[in-house]
Each structure stands twice: as C-alpha cells, then as structure tokens.
C-alpha cells in the first residue's frame, strides 16, 4: 500500500499541474470574458450570497487561476479593488494578461491559501471558485480567510465538488467515454492525444493527484464555524446541467478541438444553459444540497 501524499506533496503537485495547464485553461473550461461569462459569475455569486451582492471595496480571491471570478466582479463594479492569489505563478501570469486585455487592474500574489502574506482585517470579501478541494489543510485555510477579513466581512466559495454529486456524475462521464469512438466517427473528428488540453501527457498524469477532497455540506459548515465565522450557509448548484456538461466534455476531450463542429458546440452550450435554468428554478430549491454536483458556502465575520 502506498502512503497518502503529504500536504507538501499536494501543494507541489498543484503548483506543477496548474503551471503546466495555465496556457490551455480558459479554452479547456470554456471560460468566457464577455456577457456569457459575466452572467455565470454573477449568477453564482448571487446564489452563494443568497441575494444581490453589495459593493465590496476590497476583495481577495483564493486560487484565482486565470481570473474568472475577480475580473468579472471587477468589471461588473461589484468589487472596487481586487487582490488575486494562487499557488501557481503561471496561472497568475495568465490572469495578468487577461486583466490587461480587459483593461482592468489587479494585484496578484503567488502564495499558498493556508499562509497568506497579507495583513489581518484587510478585505471586505474573501472568495474563491473551485479551489477548496485542492487544499490539504482546510481548517488552517479557513482560519487564514477569517484573519484577513474585516469585521463584518463576507466569505464565499462556489464550485466545490460534492461527494454524492461527484459519484452520480461519474455515470454519465463513464458512459460518454465508452461512446467516444462512435461519437467521433459520427462527427468525422480525429482522435486527440491524451492530455492535449492539460499541457501535455506528463502534465495530464498529474491531474489525478490535484483533487484531494469532495465534500458533504456539513464539512464546509464545520470548517467555517470552527474558524469563528457566523451565518454559515451551504447550498447545492447544478444537477442535470452537470450530467449533461460532463458527458459532453468527456466526449469533446477525446477529439481534436478544430474537428468539433460549430453545431455540436451550440447544442452543448445551449443545452447546458437550458438545464442550468431548470436546476436553478426547480431542483435547487427542492432537493438537498448533497445531491448536486457543486456546493457553495458563504459566511460572515462577526463585527
Ligand atoms: C480548478 S482551478 C480554479 C481556478 C479559478 N478559481 C477558476 O474558477 O477558474 C484551482 C486553482 O487553485 C489553485 N491552487 C491549488 N492549490 C492551491 C493552494 N494550496 N493555494 C492557493 N491556490 C491553490 C490552482 O493553482 C488553480 O489555479
């Protein structure tokens, strides 16, 4: 039996994997810098906070990647000044290039989420998207988030995989992988080498080691409360949209990107948006958060 990786190994593999993946990251995940992306980020922020977000003077993003959340929130005027942190320096270089292209100004700091080189009480908002599941010591990380928040400040994290949601979503993912050769033949798409969207085969092999958690809602509530945060809320997001999205992504990842027809991409995109609406309007209000693929948590610092 091999020993589980140490916290230091997890941080190291995350840095190397994300450094290698940065150049293809926006294309791989369909990150959009226009209206479509803005709508997604604002929708998730509203859901995480349980209503329309106020204006935040200073925000801190943890694991900001290429800037998806901070840059859209800046552009929408929801945050006035953004500091973006990430353990991967190459992700932050990509973020800076994206900010320059959008005409936005941000501060970037390459650091580990569990050890923020930032003064206590500096930010009205601490947030992140799809990052908590990469952090080896979440109790320590949440204590850092609480430390750098101003009294009365807000914290939210979205896009965290739920344990049950992840298991359920593995079924459409596996089914799509089996169907991939027939799907490529039908679309006359060539097969792409493994890892072509991850920065190459070697980087692709690291992917399995970067995700260290999938959560049940009470895990997230516990980390936030143990760090001294108040008004902790967890909700689930996306069920049908995720099954559909993961199945299509599993198919598309096996083909040369330029061979995937425009019509297919339209079907995948519009289908995802339609199912997202159905999830949002119907299922998210009625079913327990644990069933959904994504979990979001929000809380407040006393004061
Ligand atoms: C899945 S990506 C999400 C990026 C971005 N938030 C988004 O939604 O597009 C996870 C990010 O977390 C960063 N990360 C992983 N471990 C970290 C750690 N210990 N401290 C800070 N950032 C970390 C990675 O480098 C990567 O950029």
From TrEMBL:
InterPro entries: Methyltransf_11, SAM-dependent_MTases_sf. It holds the Pfam family Methyltransf_11. Residues 60-157 form the Methyltransferase type domain. One of its GO terms (molecular function) is S-adenosylmethionine-dependent methyltransferase activity. SUPFAM superfamilies: S-adenosyl-L-methionine-dependent methyltransferases (SSF53335). This is Methyltransferase type 11 domain-containing protein.
């Amino acid at each position: 039996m091999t020993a589980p990786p140490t916290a230091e190994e997890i941080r190291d593999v995350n840095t190397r994997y994300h450094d290698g993946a940065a150049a293809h990251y926006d294309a791989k995940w369909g990150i959009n810098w226009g209206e479509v992306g803005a709508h997604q980020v604002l929708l998730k922020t509203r859901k995480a906070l349980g209503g329309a977000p106020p204006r935040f003077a200073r925000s801190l993003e943890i694991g900001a990647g290429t800037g998806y959340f901070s840059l859209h929130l800046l552009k929408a005027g929801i945050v006035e000044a953004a500091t973006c942190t990430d353990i991967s320096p190459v992700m932050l270089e990509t973020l800076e290039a994206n900010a320059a292209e959008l005409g936005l100004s941000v501060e970037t700091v390459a650091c580990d989420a569990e050890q923020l080189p930032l003064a206590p009480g500096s930010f009205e908002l601490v947030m992140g998207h799809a990052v908590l599941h990469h952090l080896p010591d979440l109790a320590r990380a949440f204590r850092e988030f609480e430390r750098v928040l101003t009294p009365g400040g807000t914290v939210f994290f979205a896009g965290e995989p739920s344990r049950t949601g992840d298991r359920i979503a593995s079924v459409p993912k596996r089914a799509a992988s089996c169907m991939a050769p027939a799907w490529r033949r039908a679309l006359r798409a060539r097969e792409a080498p493994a890892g072509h969207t991850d920065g190459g085969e070697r980087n692709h092999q690291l992917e399995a080691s970067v995700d260290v958690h999938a959560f049940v809602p009470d895990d997230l509530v516990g980390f936030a409360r143990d760090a001294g945060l108040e008004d902790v809320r967890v909700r689930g997001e996306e069920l049908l949209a995720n099954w559909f999205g993961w199945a299509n992504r599993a198919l598309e990842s096996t083909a040369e990107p330029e061979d995937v027809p425009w019509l297919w991409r339209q079907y995948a995109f519009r289908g995802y948006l339609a199912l997202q609406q159905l999830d949002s309007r119907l299922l998210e209000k009625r079913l327990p958060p644990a069933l959904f693929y994504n979990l979001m948590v929000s809380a407040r610092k006393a004061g």
